[in-house]
Amino acid sequence: MKAKKSQRKTGKKQNLIQSTLQVNGGSKSNKLVKCDKCEMSYSSTSIEDRAIHEKYHALQLHGRKWSPNWGSIAYTKRDHSSTMHLSRSMGTMTPLNSSPLKNGSSIVHQEEKIVSVRPDKSNGEVRAMMEIMTLVNNELNAPHDENDIWNSTTEEKGKAFVYIRNDRAIGIVIIENLHGGNGKASDRGRWMVYDSRRLVQNVYPDFKIGISRIWVCRTARNLGIATKLIDIARENIIYGEVVPRSQVAWSQPTDSGGKLASKYNGMMHKSGKLLLPVYI
Ligand SMILES: CC(C)(COP(=O)(O)OP(=O)(O)OC[C@H]1O[C@@H](n2cnc3c(N)ncnc32)[C@H](O)[C@@H]1OP(=O)(O)O)[C@@H](O)C(=O)NCCC(=O)NCCS
Ligand SMILES: [Zn+2]
């Protein structure tokens, strides 16, 4: 199955996304294959589809190219020795940077940083961000109209943070300010029982910020990047204040999001049930 020609005129980035949607949700084709690494289905006989897959695959696995001067720096990691991480699966030390640049016998890591991106400039970084968010929404099956939490033109409802490694955006978090501009308590907070995914009835906890979206590219998962993104967001979302972990809520956590949430700020209830802070 091919994406419509008319949709290909408006620019390559958009095409990637629209075509992806068509390929995933479109009519049946006898030649559809599903990539087991990025999970995209596409027609292996169509040159166009193969090209679309190649781009999507690279984005999903390795993140998106990111210009060094995009965004405002919120955190920089320069201590190369501390880029070593204990791999959970292997129990061995592996570098956080999966593609270190070799320099003689020593390994040189490029700078890693987290930047915040403002939606009010119509430039490359905003377009890049929208492209990543479309991919994330597709992966999460999340509504695309919720993007306006970040790129609303009328007021600043939320903030986006991007993790950059080797000039690629490899993770993002979109944070929503649940108290809004006036600092008033929110009625959106709930507790979710981790096992059953049920919301606790008649309890309305007040959380300050919400994680609207969080995503890390596939080859960079399980290295603490999502955790770092949320930590830096907590320090940079409300001026002059570090939002405590306990004040961070999750929006409809996925399987992996639920696991991350349970580690990050799940609460053990006296009943023995693990509760996650969520918001609706
Ligand atoms: C959820 C996601 C953002 C986690 O990113 P990440 O960078 O791999 O997370 P971290 O490395 O910071 O994980 C922190 C902790 O959460 C746990 N965790 C995170 N994802 C997990 C998973 N898929 N399975 C098991 N545990 C997981 C880890 O055990 C880790 O704890 P530990 O260091 O004590 O072992 C990533 O898997 C992702 O992008 N998933 C697809 C998008 C998505 O589902 N987003 C969530 C929306 S709510
Ligand atoms: Zn693929």
TrEMBL record:
Residues 1-12 have a biased composition (Basic residues). Its main location: nucleus. GO terms for biological process: mitotic sister chromatid cohesion. Residues 13-22 have a biased composition (Polar residues). Residues 1-22 are annotated as: Disordered. It is found in: Nucleus. Signal peptide: none annotated. GO terms for cellular component: chromatin; nucleus. GO terms for molecular function: protein-lysine-acetyltransferase activity; zinc ion binding. Pfam families: Acetyltransf_13, zf-C2H2_3. SUPFAM superfamilies: Acyl-CoA N-acyltransferases (Nat). Residues 208-266 form the N-acetyltransferase ESCO acetyl-transferase domain. It comes from the Eukaryota. Residues 18-58 form the N-acetyltransferase ESCO zinc-finger domain. Keywords: Acyltransferase, Cell cycle, Metal-binding, Nucleus, Transferase, Zinc, Zinc-finger. PANTHER family: N-ACETYLTRANSFERASE ECO. Belongs to the acetyltransferase family. ECO subfamily. This is N-acetyltransferase ECO1. It comes from Saccharomyces pastorianus (Lager yeast). The lineage of its organism: Eukaryota, Fungi, Dikarya, Ascomycota, Saccharomycotina. The gene is ECO1_2.
